[in-house]
Structures are given as structure tokens and as C-alpha cells.
Write a structure and sequence with these properties.
Blueprint: H1 16-25, H2 27-30, H3 35-47, E1 57-60, H4 66-75, E2 80-84, H5 87-93, E3 101-104, E4 117-123, H6 132-142, E5 143-154, H7 160-169, H8 181-189, E6 194-207, H9 210-220, H10 236-246, E7 255-267
Parallel strand pairs: 1-2, 1-4, 2-3, 4-5
Antiparallel strand pairs: 5-7, 6-7
């Protein structure tokens, strides 16, 4: 039997320092291209239990603070704590308010006391955590009994069009790797939290050309960060080959880019 506490992606997910640096650099451009991120986070807000009124809440992986401010509007700013591993994001979010404190923190080792909050909200952040079992364990530790962990993440199938197109060109790692949905199911089931809802849904964006997609990924800070990615500049011939390969996916609306999004709401037992 597999020990689910050890189900990670060793050597596959990016180094946290690279993730923090990449998103810090993207802080000023992120919101201009984050339509998908806003849509996904809004859907996560709608999935919160209607009866939930947390005096103390955490926005884990707060980024530019968009959902920090949304949570504050719903639950009050005084009890809010915004956490992110990227100092640049925190520096961008802090002046806009929304939480009592903005703190640099790692989701796998939260700087919070046990049973100290009623809600941990995290949208499109935990896919960068190599040890997701620790993320769940930490959320369980800091939540009060009856408290809720609500998160969205990305799983296998995300940007498969770009991945498959690059695979035709050179077979190297050009697209970020993500866990399978079955791994999320297994780890959530083994977390000690009650799974209220857990599903995976595709979101498909369309672009006029490949350059528009790759520029958006860079502006988000979510371009290729994985070990094994090719170094240096990409030659013109390879770019032209990529464009030709991706054109095979073209639809009437443009070139599709699929994001396979995990939506989850878990509750700490009373």
C-alpha cells in the first residue's frame, strides 16, 4: 500500500525560491492578465458553506490581494491574514489593504498557532507546493474544529496543448508539471479533514496566437519553472516549429489553452 504522506512529485515541481522570485517579478503585471485566476477564485468563494462567518480567516497564497479584499468585504478585514511566499506580491498587496497582516510564509509550514482560525482560503497557489500532504496537515492544525479549508489548484491536463506541441518540437520540459486529480483525491481523503466537495473542471481560454499565450504566462509569473527546462534563448526555428504544431489545435475562437482546475472544500471535524 502506498504511504500517501509521501505522494509528492520529487524533482518535478519547481524550487520554492524560484517560484517566489518569479511571482515577485510578476507582481505589477499579474492583475492585467489574471482573468482566469479571478474567475476561478470567484467560483471558490461561491462554494464556501453559506453559514460560514469566520472571525479569523487566512488567504493562503494571496498574490496581489484580490481575494484578500474580497474576503474582507465578506467577513471583515480585522480578522484577516494574508500569506504568500513571494515578497514582491506582498509588497504589492499590502498598500491596498484587506487584511490585518500580510506575512511571508510557506504553505507547508504555516507560522500560525494551532486552532487559530476558522477559514483557510487558497486559490491557485498550492499547485506549487511539492509536499501537498504537509499543506493539508498544516491547514488541519491551524483550523478550529468545524473550520474550513477551501482551495483551488491545477492538475494534470493543464496546458496540454502547449505541452504536446513542444513535445513534437524537441521533447524537452517546457510546461509546468502538475499532480493528477487522483492524487488530490487520495491526499484529501487521508488528510483527517472531511471532504465536503472535490471536483476537477476544465477552463479553456483562447488566444489569437502562441505568442499571446506565452507572454501571458510570463506576465502571470507562471511560465516554465520546472527542473529539466531548457536553458537559454529559444531559437527561431524551434519557435516556428512550435507555432506549426500548436496550429493543429486551432478552433474557431482561436488557439485553446486548457486549465484543469481542482475545486475543493474540506472541513475539520468537530
Amino acid at each position: 500500500m502506498t504511504d500517501l504522506s509521501l505522494v509528492t512529485l520529487p524533482g518535478a515541481l519547481p524550487d520554492k525560491r524560484q517560484v517566489a522570485a518569479s511571482f515577485s517579478r510578476a507582481a505589477t503585471s499579474y492583475d492585467s492578465v489574471a482573468a482566469l485566476q479571478r474567475d476561478v477564485g470567484e467560483q471558490l468563494l461561491e462554494r464556501l458553506p453559506p453559514s460560514l462567518t469566520p472571525p479569523r480567516w487566512v488567504d493562503l497564497g494571496c498574490g496581489t490581494g484580490y481575494f484578500t479584499r474580497a474576503l474582507a468585504a465578506r467577513f471583515g478585514e480585522a480578522g484577516g491574514l494574508a500569506l504568500d511566499i513571494a515578497e514582491g506580491m506582498l509588497n504589492h498587496a499590502r498598500p491596498q489593504g484587506g487584511a490585518a497582516h500580510f506575512v511571508a510564509a510557506d504553505a507547508e509550514r504555516l507560522p500560525l498557532q494551532a486552532s487559530s482560525c476558522e477559514l483557510v482560503f487558497s486559490s491557485l497557489a498550492v499547485q506549487w507546493c511539492a509536499d501537498f500532504a504537509s499543506v493539508l496537515s498544516e491547514a488541519r492544525r491551524v483550523l478550529k474544529p468545524g473550520g474550513v479549508l477551501a482551495f483551488t489548484s491545477l492538475c494534470v491536463g493543464t496546458l496540454y496543448e502547449l505541452r504536446d506541441s513542444w513535445r513534437q518540437v524537441d521533447g524537452l520540459v517546457h510546461v509546468n508539471r502538475f499532480r493528477g486529480f487522483d492524487t488530490y483525491q487520495q491526499l484529501c481523503a487521508a488528510s483527517g479533514l472531511n471532504v465536503l466537495s472535490l471536483e476537477s473542471r476544465p477552463h479553456v481560454l483562447h488566444y489569437p496566437d502562441v505568442r499571446s499565450l506565452t507572454h501571458e504566462l510570463k506576465a502571470l509569473g507562471a511560465h516554465n519553472l520546472n527542473p529539466g527546462r531548457p536553458g537559454g534563448l529559444t531559437g527561431r526555428a524551434r519557435i516556428l516549429a512550435l507555432v506549426e504544431a500548436y496550429e493543429q489545435f486551432r478552433q474557431a475562437q482561436g488557439l485553446p489553452a486548457t486549465y484543469q482546475v481542482v475545486y475543493a472544500v474540506l472541513e475539520k471535524p468537530l
